[in-house]
Amino acid sequence: MSLLSSVCLAPALLVVALSVTAARAADAPNVPDTLKQRIAACTACHGEHGEGTPETGFFPRLAGKPAGYLARQIRNFQDGLRKYAPMEYTVRGLSPEYMHEIAGYFAAQQVPYQRSPLPRVTDAILKRGEVLATQGDPAHKVPACAACHGEHLTGVEPDIPGLVGLPYDYISAQLGAWRTHTRAMVAPDCMATIAGRLSEADITAVSAWLAAHDVPANIHAQPAGSVTPPLACGVLQAKEATR
Amino acid sequence: MKWLLRGFFALLVVAIAVVAWWLFARHHAAIPPAQTTAAKLQDPALIARGAYLATVGDCAACHTAQGGKPYAGGRALPTPFGQVPAPNLTPDDATGLGQWSFDAFWRALHEGVGRDGHALYPAFPYTSYTKVSREDAFALFAYLKTLPPVRNQTGAPSLRFPYDLRAGLATWRTLYFRPGEFVPDPKQSAEWNRGAYLVQGLGHCNECHVARDNLGGLPSNETLTGGQIPAQNWYAPDLSTHAHGGLEGWSTDDIVTLLRTGQSRKGAAFGPMADVVMQSTQHMHEDDLRAIAVYLQSLPPRPAPAPGGSQVDATARLDRGADLYDRQCASCHGKDGQGVTNVYPPLAGNSSVTEPTGINAIRIVLLGGFAPTTAAHPRPYSMPPFAQQLSDGDVAAVVSYIRHAWSNNAAPVTERDVAAYRHTPVE
Hints:
The complex is a heterodimer of chains A (243) and B (427).
Chain A lengths: L2 H25 L7 H4 L1 H7 L20 H12 L6 H7 L4 H12 L15 H12 L11 H4 L18 H12 L10 H8 L2 H13 L21 H4 L6
Chain B lengths: L1 H26 L16 H13 L2 H5 L12 E4 L2 E4 L16 H10 L14 H4 L4 H12 L12 E2 L6 H11 L13 H11 L26 E2 L6 E2 L15 H10 L1 E2 L2 E2 L2 H9 L6 H12 L17 H19 L17 H4 L4 H9 L1 E2 L11 E2 L8 H13 L10 H8 L5
């Protein structure tokens, strides 16, 4: 090839190269540099705003739950205290910092609560559920839900989740999981103690009442330190254990 | 007549096992407890080197239970023969290495024999660790002795008959194990030799990256040619960078970048390799990573895969897959399958997509997940799991499509393949 033709060809090649690059750029996906984009693995099931699937109760709502509580759940899945293989797999590599950032994202989401299907239960059962939630059952050493989860059952910052607005299936499944040791917390595990003292009928009753209970206008968790837990509870006394 | 022959054969196998066991026992006595901690073990530089080597060997990955104290053992390692709990490596007298002398530790690493003289199960990769030098073993031992002792009795393996008979191990060793040492190749550079030493020894790469036979033995005539990891159901790809290799076209930099950051322009680590990157390779020195890459570059080209695969016409499946790809995958991985560097891995020319079994692509589509969290990528992007959204037929279609699209040319997968791995327990 002569020098002249090389010189002529060079700009032409450059143009071709540039247009290929341009085509490639147009073809390449445009990826937003946002946390929401990064956590597609979470939002695919829990919803873009952590709304969960209230219709089925299968994927729990994360929106508006206290950040400390959410981060702790991720950690508990990593440590095998909570058992659910797809969650254990998904969160296994997250660093504590990333975990807290993700927890903060869902804690900050404001999504209206949605009614989920209720089981058919008698008024007497609902009444029993109300008693358990608001007064407890001293004969069986079961404290009221409200003793820890807040006067209006909307939770307490930063570690105690709200109980109102949750689906019946979700609440009863969690209490069941504490009894079968597929959900646990750092010792002493107060919720395991309480779930162990509840009969199956009581679990149905309290889950049904909580699911049927009207969500209060102010759904925010109570401020930190506003409750005095009646039971020893590892998660409330100890700061998150450092490994 | 047939049963007589069978009986005779069985008797012969038992006789061989007994002889092998007797020979083994005669040569491996218990080593008495360590009396004192040698002063030499206290050298801070030695201990620091041991800590680094423990990271290179990724010892903590197996020797730490989920949510457990580091190195305190108890994680049940799944094998096709049952579960083997990893022992406690902390210097606890009753349940750990407290009473172990260096000679006992060296024999375990080099020969796969416990302090009490029993053969160890090869879930402990002494088939690779036998190449670790005595100096490196000493540094490792010094480091392990500095760990806070944790009392944790890890229990006995729960293996199916006849694999629970330790006598069988003597036979296994006769078939598959020779104590060895790493012999440098004087024709190669110091860097290559360092890489070979790390890959073949502490790195124990070949324990996953080669196909094992039915008895869990490693082939003697090939290394790093890729294989399905038994009981975990991931496919560890071939590591050759040349023609038909699993890393075909990967440069030295690409390999170093993947090991250091969890991603490269050619692909991303996932499944068990994501753990390896997060816990081990991202913490390794750059020159060691480069040495590993240089060594891997020297693996030979592989034979072209046999043509064929499925004889059925997969056109309909591929069309359905192409349609699903456009709707569900292209917004991240691109219409051209090139992905986005450091965000979403390319699918074109990616051996995780085209590996022989299709397991990796099937499971990733079902499970989704985050890219490894590393110092380079502290907030990695992630892929949504599609297990809830896509039927077995949909997953088979889209996986078949990505295995066939662009420059890829791997056999399609079937609905039955997807069903087989949909409920695989996550290890």
